[in-house]
Write a structure and sequence with these properties.
The protein is α/β, with parallel strands linked by helices. The chain has 15 helices and ten strands. A six-stranded parallel sheet has the order 1-8-5-4-2-3, sandwiched between helices. Strands 6-7 form a two-stranded antiparallel ribbon. Pfam families: ADH_Fe_C, Fe-ADH.
């Protein structure tokens, strides 16, 4: 087991009445004015924003709003939110929505107390040293942003999608009501399930040696998603299925699933697949992140598994109860191939795509993704297996 530092300061308020606690909890920590950030009209139409505002009003906390966050959130709206947060002198940012809304709120919280352009943080021209607190109301189990240290933002003008990881990004609180997810479109529910599984796998396949305690936690989260996602799709108001998906999303990305298998001196995982997918959804911002991962992750697994087959065999046993019939090279390859097929088959069964062609991405698009990948990951990247840009091209090509 490697040495690690685990930090998860987010207070989780979980359950059917979680939203009613927002005002009292924020009042308890001294907040007086909130910037509520949200996406389109669904949060208002569903009554979620009204409930958040009512709880803030009851606690005497003033509030202003910023709507219009899109999937694969863009820096222009972040900059608008930074100016609004400054002019209104807010002391807490409250995102109500999915990962895009929460990532936008985190970026606003960093930028509001920074003299330069908030984009500086995402291209690593500057490092944040402070922020306004964020208190999240997640409505989509997927990104785990309600307790993670990450924020990912697109810049359309520069054709980039970049992330920043800092503990300053971790929300002080998250108010999580599974009933808010009942009305999610099936595609978003499915893409969210893939995103949750991918957050765990990025850590499991870090290239580091096994840690049984962490491995059991990680694979248990994945098994729970495999069990609950089809139930949620079949019966959208299945509270237990929705609740388990929502909790799995938080645990998948707060760092717990990487303890001890973290890369010494680096991140708690490989994160190559996320890097490859970010360029995909920067190429076409209509591509849902989880749907992109459903294509990219199996392609990466087929490309790299020979580097550490023992990790794949552990994953095969723990998640799918697949075993190599003996220790021969042929049996090992058969078991691992069957495992990757099983995983991709599960993604497809949820309604996720199998190839990049489903996104109308073709051979000539690959080179358009390489400059962003170079900026974000460098010319050599990956901890499970060190890859080059030519390896990235090969993985993209295999997924067409």
């Amino acid at each position: 087991m490697n040495d690690f530092s685990f930090f998860s300061p987010t207070r989780i308020v979980f359950g059917k009445n979680a939203l009613e606690s927002i005002g009292s909890e924020l009042g308890r920590i001294g907040c007086t004015k909130a910037l509520i950030v949200y996406g389109g009209g669904s949060a208002r139409a569903a009554g979620t924003l009204d409930r958040v505002e009512a709880s803030l009003d009851a606690a005497g906390i003033a509030h202003v709003e910023l709507g219009g966050v899109r999937p694969n959130p863009e820096i222009t709206l972040v900059r608008e939110g930074v100016e609004l947060a400054r002019s209104e002198k807010v002391d807490v940012v409250v995102p109500v929505g999915g990962g895009s809304v929460m990532d936008t709120a985190k970026a606003i919280a960093l930028g509001a107390v920074y003299d330069g352009d908030v984009w500086d943080f995402f291209v690593h021209r500057a490092a944040p040293t402070e922020r306004i607190p964020v208190a999240a109301v997640p409505t989509l189990p997927a990104s785990g942003s309600e307790a993670s240290n990450s924020s990912v933002i697109s810049n359309d003008a520069e054709h980039l999608k970049c992330g920043i990881n800092t503990d300053l990004n971790r929300p002080v609180a998250a108010f999580m009501d599974p009933e808010l997810t009942y009305t999610l479109p099936p595609y978003q529910t499915a893409a969210g399930a893939v995103d949750i599984i991918s957050h765990v796998m990025e850590r499991f396949f870090s290239g580091e040696s096994a840690v049984p305690v962490t491995d059991h936690i990680a694979c248990g989260i994945i098994r729970s998603v495999i069990e609950c996602a089809p139930r949620a799709l079949a019966q959208p108001d299945d509270y237990d299925a929705r609740a388990n998906l929502m909790w799995a999303g938080t645990l998948a990305h707060n760092g717990l699933a990487g303890c001890g298998v973290n890369v010494p001196g680096g991140r708690d995982g490989d994160w190559t697949c996320h890097g490859l997918e970010h360029e995909l959804s920067a190429l076409d911002t209509s591509i849902t992140h989880g749907a992109g991962l459903a294509v990219i992750f199996p392609a990466w697994m087929r490309y790299v598994w020979r580097e550490h087959p023992e990790r794949f065999l552990t994953f095969a046993h723990e998640v799918f109860d697949i075993e190599a019939v003996d220790g021969s090279d042929e049996a090992i390859e058969d078991a691992i191939t069957a495992t990757i097929d099983e995983l991709q088959g599960f993604f497809v069964s949820l309604g996720m795509p199998r190839t990049l062609g489903a996104f109308d991405v073709h051979e000539d698009d690959i080179e358009r993704m390489i400059p962003g990948l170079t900026l974000n990951r460098g010319e050599v990247f990956g901890s499970f297996k060190q890859l080059t840009l030519d390896d990235a091209r090969a993985i993209y090509r295999s997924a067409l």
